[in-house]
Amino acid sequence: MVRLSIARAKSVTMEMPEKYAQLALKNKSGEKSKNEVTPFLKEKIMRTLTWREYSVKDVKISKYTKIENNILYIDEELAGRAVNINPIVKKVTLRVIKPGERNVFVNSIMDIIPVAAKVEGKIGEGVTHFLGGMVVFLTGTDEEGRQISEFGSSHGILNEKVAFGMPGTPGNREIILNIDVVIEKGTGMERRGPLAAHQVCDWILDHIRQELKKLPPQEAIYVQEFKDVRREGRPKVLIVKELGGQGAMHEKIIMPSEPGGVRGGRSIIDLGNVPVILSPNEVRDGGIHSVT
Amino acid sequence: MGIGPSTKETTLHHMNDPMVEIVRNDKSLDLVGIAVVGSPQDNLEKFYVAKRLGILAEALGVDGVLIYAEGFGNQHIDFAAHIEELGKRGIPAVGLTFAGNGLVVENEYMEDIIDLDKAGEGMETEIVGQNCVTKKDVIKSIKILKKKMKRKGR
To answer: Is the pLDDT at A241 greater than 60, yes or no?
Structure first.
């Protein structure tokens, strides 16, 4: 009928009437065709997460905490009150870094945290409000001025110390709320030191979250639904994330009460470092907090 | 940050994790979940958690594993142990980590490791977020994993 033999070729296109093509394929596959049939895709939806995104165009240190007309106001007194949360933390400073002002000095960056709050349900399902346009940088030193870091420190000029635009860092347009902490001398290399810094930071963020929860659904600039689905018949894949579990900047908080928070979660160290399964929605909804 | 700023995943990274987002949206795969496993200090404990991971993957009956390890140095001892536990059970795995100047330990099952070193310097650059998992790394690793699973008949 048709015979074609090619020894070495690049981008070969063959055209023929459909009936011949069908015939040719049928003859070639023969017994194989039974295995190659794609199984009918059955998707089972396990849970749904509604993600409402809000945006701020400015962040201001003020006399009260409020989100109004796309501006986030943060009570300056929160910094002073925050030291009562954990006695290891001696001082907290709030600072706003605008996108064009990243040529400033920052202490060792301990974490980059987005602000998000649960409105309905627990982490991984229900409704989450996410505050776009801004991100939180937690930085810190100890009382003697020693950077909270271990092997390599990220203190220095912000612009040079962060690869912006990566999955774990903000883009060029985000406003940075810098929460800088000073912890008890010598505790930077102990588990309790960095953990205290994260707790205090989370306490401040809780105040912003309270305001974020109040925003009406119609003011959201973007709404998205995330679904945990299982696809019957497809190859089963497991993602494994091996994360630090040695204490003092090698710790994770698993499944906190608020997205990306600390409160209500369990430390991976206290969980014995054994594998714990999270659903994709739970990871998306901030089920892992890095105490890096 | 601990070891080290360029390889640590921030809280923001976990929420945006391209590894999770790309695999969950791939209609040719069934993502069973994300196993979070800690990296303990002690070597005996490292092998303890690796064994648990192997048994967990076996119990879940998974066809393939994408495994990421944060940081470098002694964390690669568990990384190697995890892949060995999976390999012994015939579960294909593709690893993603900052290998830098090479891993401290290796074994016969570690044939597919994707190095996350973006700077190409093979060392800690002290720049936050620089040597983390990106979309490109994930697409590459899924491609390899699919090939490996196919060879196993999946």
So the answer is: yes
Per-residue exposure over A209-237, b if at least 16 CB sit within 10 Å of its own CB, e if not: bebbeebeeeebeeeeebebbebeebbbb
In a domain, B4, yes or no: no
Give residue A2's pLDDT band: very low, low, confident or very high (50, 70, 90). low
Assign A34 a pLDDT band (cuts: 50, 70, 90).
low
B60 contacts in chain A (CB < 8 Å): 236, 238
Number of independent structural domains in chain B? 1
If you average pLDDT over residues B146-153, what whole number do you get? Answer: 93
Residues 6+ apart with CB under 8 A from B71: A244, A250, B2, B3, B4, B7, B8, B39, B98
Measured distance CA(B72)–CA(B124) in Å, rounded: 9
SS3 (DSSP) at B41 = coil
How far are the Cα atoms of A28, A30, B128 from residue A21, in angstroms, in the given order? Answer: 11, 14, 55
Asked if residue A292 belongs to a domain, the reply is no
* Count of pairs with CB atoms under 8 A, one residue in A, one in B: 293
Do B21 and A154 count as a contact with CB atoms less than 8 A apart? no
Domain-located, residue A221:
yes
pLDDT tens digits along B54-77 = 999 999 999 999 999 998 888 999
Residue A74 lies in a domain: yes
How sure is the predictor about A10, in pLDDT bands with cuts at 50, 70 and 90? confident
Mean pLDDT computed over every residue of chain B: 92
Q: Which two tokens stand for residue A134?
A: 């801004």
C-alpha A43: how far from chain center: 26
ipTM above 0.95, yes or no: yes
CA-closest candidate to residue B36, choices A252, A270, A122, A286: A252
Task: Tally the domains of chain A.
Answer: 1
Contact B127, A158 (CB under 8 A): no
Question: What residues in A contact B1, CB-CB < 8 Å?
Answer: 108-110, 149-150, 152-154, 249, 292
Q: Closest residue of B to A139, CA-based?
A: B1
Q: Which of residues 33-52 of B touch A (CB under 8 A)?
A: 33-41, 45, 49, 52
Q: Do the domain assignments include residue B39?
A: yes
Q: Which residues touch A11 (CB under 8 Å, ≥6 apart)? A: none
In a domain, A253, yes or no: no
